[in-house]
Recover the amino acids of this structure.
């Protein structure tokens, strides 16, 4: 996973959330899905960062 993927997913979330705010209930489902994807990407990035820190310390 990369920072670019995270930023792209945040943009998708923003778009869907704005639609949800205007009353589109289906967009709420898509926004929740984007949030779940963001959570996964963030966890993967955390793991990558931790691994790189471990390599540098060794």
């Amino acid at each position: 996973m990369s920072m670019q993927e995270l930023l792209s997913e945040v943009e998708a979330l923003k778009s869907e959330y704005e639609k949800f705010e205007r009353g589109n209930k289906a967009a709420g489902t898509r926004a929740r899905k984007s949030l779940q994807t963001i959570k996964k990407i963030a966890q993967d990035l955390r793991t990558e960062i931790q691994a790189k820190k471990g390599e540098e310390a060794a």
Summary: Residues 3-57 form one domain. The chain has a mean pLDDT of 94.
